[in-house]
Amino acid sequence: MNDVHNSFWFFALLISSTLIFCFIILKKRNTQTLFLYLTMVGYGYIIETMIFNFLGSYDYKPNIIKHNAFYDSELGAFFSNALSLPVIATLIATFHLNWLWIVFFSGYFVGIEWLFLKLHIYTHHWWRLEYTGLGLLMYFGLAKIFYKWILHPSIGFKHNLMLYLITGSISASAHILPMLFFMNRFYRPGWFEDVGRDSIAFSAIYYLCASLIYCLIVKINWKMKWIKYILTGLFIYIVNQVLIKIGILHSLVWWDQMYYVFLALFLIMLVKIIDKRLSKPILVKNPF
């Protein structure tokens, strides 16, 4: 019964966030909205890697994943950082909501966090509600800045940062979610005693480095386009073999290594498309 109680609140966030996101997409009908959402997911993942994975700021308790408590907590973080927060950030930026709305939504999520604490489905360690409020003010404000960058494409740092954050959002989700649900692999670098935390922490470093490589490969002007795919697939395969050899990667199912090689190839193709679309301004409809 307690499991149902815990998961209910997280699924409520999932459903409400999905409905709001569908509303945004139906109203905007452009790729810039999707790019902003993915950018905010990618940015949120980086922040969460630092404060949650490595610094142990808090724990989520959705009680959805039974076999590993930290994986369950990671899934709770996913509900927040891949759904509710970036969706509202996208709403604020794409509908040009002012700072009063930013303050309102920041307070709204602080209220949700307080409720989750009282329901004992979320636990603070060194984290505080004040940190959430301040962090969200900056997060939602940053979404408005990122949206301006996306609306007015440019080469150089802004473009490359957008591309990296978008790539990271997709790469991280596709890398870690199978580990949570299918137990296809785990990492054991020995940074933390808890196997789940150790595995997710290394996964974060893996996806951050892999995303950078994908972006760099796409940016190189290859004479023979197919070479990038061969080199990428071979590189990911070799990295996996080295990690297995030194005892960090433990591959548990037959399809595991094949999946990550094909994921890398797919991401190269996808990042190339995103890179081109980010460079082209698209007419944006009236916010309302």
TrEMBL record:
Question: Could you list the residue ranges that cross the membrane?
Answer: 6-26, 33-55, 75-92, 99-117, 129-150, 162-187, 199-217, 229-252, 258-275
Q: Keywords for this entry?
A: Membrane, Transmembrane, Transmembrane helix
Question: What's the protein here called?
Answer: Uncharacterized protein
Which organism does this record belong to? Answer: Paenibacillus violae
